[in-house]
Amino acid sequence: MRSSVIVFPGSNCDRDIAVALEKMQFKNQMVWHKESKLPKTDLIVVPGGFSYGDYLRSGAIAGKSLIIDEVIKAAAAGCLVLGICNGFQILTETGLLKGTLLRNKNLKFINKDVNLIVSNNKTKFTSKYELNQILKINIAHNEGNYFTNPQHLEKLKKENLIAFKYCDEKGDINKDSNPNGAMENIAGIFNDKKNILGMMPHPERMIDKTISNSDGVNLFSSLIS
To answer: By three-state DSSP, how is residue 125 classified?
Structure first.
């Protein structure tokens, strides 16, 4: 399976995701943001980091990069797109995903491992997980507080477009298990066609038990399968 990782000035997780993809046997290419064409690809990854230093607003400048037009076209044609952390923010800036990521509720940067529950395992991103499986994944963000309007929130719930929610180690979803104040503990969402996933946690950091755990592996194995 072929993958392409978009690289922006300030990206600091692009190499991490490349290592994860290559470990999972993807044929990966790095694509600089000034490129006007995408290589033939099955998966586009918009990685985490601080694109353009998060000036103006997280993901705002990256969302206007030259390569983004090609990402939008590819997504419309059905290509799989994964946005992680700053990548999720960029996807909301481009309109590929609805909603926005606000400042964390405590107005501080958060970097820690958190528990997630798998809310939908009937997609190309999550098929190797069990429904309601609890994962431990790292987060590292300042603007991870997902917010959307009531109509879209209702649609997310009705059409099963919520991928992951923050929970505690028992799977309980409540304010205490919500690290950033995200609406209804939302950690990741799909678009209508479920070929785009945006998530704040970093699955690429959880692919090796020696340094973390392997809870991120099944996201990539889902895509491969």
So the answer is: coil
Tell me if residue 33 is catalytic. no
User: What Å distances lie between residue 202 and 149, 155, 187, CA to CA?
Assistant: 25, 25, 11
Residue 212 has, within 13 A of its CA and on its CB side, a CA count of 19
Q: Catalytic residue at 13?
A: no
The end-to-end CA distance of the chain, in Å, is 9
Rounded mean pLDDT, 149-162: 98
Q: Is 152 a catalytic residue?
A: no
pLDDT of residue 62: 67
CATH assignment, 2-213+218-222:
3.40.50.880
CA distance 58 to 151: 24
User: Which of 13, 79, 85, 167 does the annotation list as catalytic?
Assistant: 85
Domain limits of the chain? Answer: 2-213+218-222
